[in-house]
Design goal:
Elements lengths: L3 E6 L3 H11 L4 E7 L28 H19 L5 E10 L7 H5 L15 E5 L11 E10 L1 H14 L3 E4 L20 E4 L16 E11 L6 E4 L8 E7 L6 E6 L1 E2 L8 H14 L15 E12 L4 E7 L2 E7 L9 H23 L1
Parallel strand pairs: 1-2, 1-7, 2-6, 3-9, 7-15
Antiparallel strand pairs: 3-5, 4-5, 8-11, 8-12, 8-13, 9-10, 10-11, 14-15
Helix pairs in contact: 1-4, 1-6, 2-6
Bound molecules: flavin-adenine dinucleotide (FAD).
């Protein structure tokens, strides 16, 4: 059996999931190199900051929607059968206000908040809330059983699953994507490099994709637990501010957000945003604090900011050749990297297979 030397660049959810699927084939010898690894919290590393829940945003019939549909079974399976992955089932209520439909957050969540969404037939226990149960100002709302991913457990869990399959992890910060070919743990040149560098694909030499841009998300993690997830289409605090509440598995606390600020690179939590996020969260779900309490009842673990790695034309998953090095790109997953992780990784693995099979045929 001939072997394939593969270097995956990036250890966010995209790189780790791609490495995991690649490593299931014993012919693939996989090295993962990254500037940031699970355990790090950095503005250049989006994955640890995600909520992270499964809330489909893709427009009906789009690739995006198809990737979300195709990733659900894997996330459901992990919640059902591998609780050590840090993923658990959580009911979610999603509220919609028609007045948000032309705002940034309203457009972002248009499919999610529709009364008849394409995903209603496969998520668990989907129901539209009866009109008489809608809170004041809400035009429609839906409820289903989703998952919530504790990223602090899930990302290291992905590393452990990759290592079990023989992947080798190395820290490195690349200047040029083609340099990755020289970093394989065997010392041999990589047959394929998989680029999963997220937002850095905008500046990394050899990629330099100017379609990639940040969407800033400010969040906080609190010890309070309201018991289920809630989200809403927008807020009265401006078109880029929104509210969501995600209680995570295994004592991970509750992530409260947030903002959806396009082309904003500010890495520091803004106290004004934080204040508004807390006020809105309590309004959206008063179960966060004890009766009679206000925001002082929130027990904050940390404030944070993550930059969602968005791309104008959507994620880029395609083959490329840079300085003679065969590259497969898998980046640009915006605010939905977890909920498309398995299907996008599968697509990238298919492209890697095309390259390695071509290499094997050339040897015959
Ligand atoms: P990243 O996690 O940013 O990883 C990039 C990797 O590339 C890192 O390891 C980095 O060190 C490495 N790298 C970059 N440049 C170099 C270099 N030059 N050399 C070596 N290594 C390099 N998604 C969901 O599905 N559901 C949610 O509920 C959700 N909520 C979110 C909430 C917030 C506040 C944010 C910020 C994001 C949210 N997302 C959510 C989106 C999700 O987090 C991202 O889509 C996803 O994390 C992107 O992962 P990635 O692996 O592509 O990029």
């Amino acid at each position: 059996m001939s072997t394939n030397n593969i270097v995956v660049v990036g250890a966010g959810v995209t790189g780790l999931t791609t490495a995991l699927l690649l490593s299931k084939n014993p012919a693939n010898k996989v090295t993962v190199i990254a500037k940031h690894m699970p355990g790090d919290y950095d503005i250049e590393y989006a994955s640890p900051w995600a909520g992270a829940s499964y809330m489909p945003f893709g427009k009906k019939g789009s690739d995006h929607a198809e990737w979300e549909r195709a990733t659900w079974p894997a996330l459901r399976d992990l919640a059902e059968n591998q609780p050590e992955s840090g993923i658990h089932f959580q009911d979610i209520t999603i509220q919609n206000r028609l007045k948000d439909q032309n705002t940034v957050t309203g457009q972002w969540s248009a499919e999610l908040t529709s009364a008849n969404p394409w995903f209603k037939d496969f998520v668990l226990n989907f129901q539209n809330l009866p009109r008489d149960q809608l809170p004041p100002g809400i035009d429609n709302a839906q409820k289903f059983t989703s998952v919530c991913i504790n990223t602090a457990i899930y990302l290291p869990w992905l590393v452990s699953q990759c290592m079990k399959n023989g992947c080798v992890f190395k820290r490195a910060s690349l200047e040029h994507i083609s340099d990755a070919a020289g970093t394989h743990h065997t010392g041999n040149k990589a047959d394929v490099v998989v680029n999963c560098t997220g937002l850095a694909s905008r500046t990394l030499a050899g990629v330099a994709d100017d379609q990639v841009y940040p969407v800033r998300g400010q969040i906080m993690i609190v010890r309070n637990d309201p018991g289920s997830m809630t989200s809403i289409s927008g807020s009265d605090d401006g078109g880029e501010e929104v509210t969501y509440i995600f209680p995570r598995a295994a004592g991970g606390g509750t992530v409260i957000g947030g903002t959806y600020q396009k082309n904003n690179w500010d890495p520091l939590p803004d106290p004004n945003f934080a204040n508004r996020i807390m006020q809105r969260a309590l309004k959206l779900d008063p179960r966060l604090v004890k009766e009679g309490q206000g925001v002082e009842g929130l027990d904050i673990v940390r404030h944070g900011v993550g930059l969602r790695p968005a791309r104008t034309d959507g994620p880029r998953i395609e083959k490329d050749q840079v300085n003679g090095v065969k590259v497969v790109h898998n980046y640009g997953h915006g605010g939905f990297g977890y909920q498309v992780s398995f299907s996008c990784a599968e697509k990238a693995v298919g492209l890697v297979n095309e390259i390695t099979q071509q290499k094997d045929r050339a040897k015959l």
